[in-house]
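Regression check, pyridoxal-5'-phosphate case 411:
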Amino acid sequence: MNTDASTTPRALATEAVHAGREDLAALGLHAVPLDLSTTYPSYDSRGEAARIDEFAATGARPQGPPVYSRLDNPTTARFEDALARLEGAGSAVAFASGMAALTAVLLVRASAGLRHVVAVRPLYGCSDHLLNAGLLGTEVTWVDPAGIEDAIRSDTGLVIVETPANPTLAEIDVRAVARSCGAVPLLVDNTFATPVLQRPLEDGARLVLHSATKYLGGHGDVLGGVVACDEELARALRQVRFATGGVLHPLAGYLLLRGLSTLPVRMRAASASAAELARRLSVDPRVARVHYPKLGGAMVAFEVYGDPHAVIGGVRLITPAVSLGSVDSLIQHPASISHRIVAEGDRRSSGVSDRLLRMSVGLEDVEDLWRDLCEALSAAGAAAAVRQPVSVPAPARERGADVRLSHPAAR
Ligand code: PLP
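Current build output:
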């Protein structure tokens, strides 16, 4: 497939629609072909042996049919090419989920003898758990961004940050963090911002990770993950993916490529609604604090004075569910669901208060969303009468979360 970008630079919205599809017209096609093959016939076993040897030695994508679908898939490869272009990366490697993608990165570094990871909380709950429990034989040191440089050791293989972070939406200065990483690769989880709002590789990150399940897919019907990086790291990731088997299903690759084509418009529309909801929540007496990134985006987090569980029980239009990035709005209570697996003390010290709710704003009309939120807040008995100051742990403030107190009395 010809994946060369045009010599004239194209806008992200144009790339989102055309990247990974440049060869279609010459093939006499308009829609992307979906290749569901698990195996690929060949009468030339010597030739196949050479292709397998080549992959084992280099990790480069096989030329021609991929021998076996755990090595590569042409539909998924189109998604990978497109995402790499959107992130400004040399390559991208797709996985069965965001967690499979993170696992592969950790295994690549650990297999080079670099088992130590430096990470900044909060991270998505399961990413935190994977590191903290040492499930892959890695060891983690948790630090604030200012502590990264001092935490790096001779066996540090990776620095991991999320920005905006799940679930507090705390932001990190990627350029500054990249400088303090020195030669150690920096991985930025860009799930919340997407390349529409932020391209961490331009700021010095070496790897960008997405839970593609979220905004890249955009419709709540695909589980996937992807890492955008240089070709050298991509080769190592493909070898780990082949050996461990965390491949993306080709139908998921097809849906993710389709999702990318509307990513810029979805992100812009949902972000406009999220900014408006954040503004309204920030002056609502039932709300103690609103977290909304300076960068913008379609996620809003807020702390209520009343019972957060009752807000979850009170929504009717907004779906009370974990995950995010779909066309429809979702709300969840991180301390109960997305970050339940993180120990209570670690949760709290990274700013994940028990009163925090995390909302993924979709494409519904903002007035309908506001009405639903308002009714849920009222039903929760989140009355101003029970207003009490909510303590915000220092790290959330230090990390630059846009923390706005909602009501003069609460300031
Ligand atoms: N990274 C972030 C920021 C997430 O929110 C999630 C899931 O919610 C993941 C990674 C893991 O992705 P997946 O659920 O696709 O495995």
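Comparison notes: The pocket of pyridoxal-5'-phosphate is lined by residues 97-99, 124, 126-127, 162, 166, 189, 191, 211, 213, 223, 225 (CB under 6 Å). The first strand starts at residue 91 and ends at 95. No diff flagged against the previous build.
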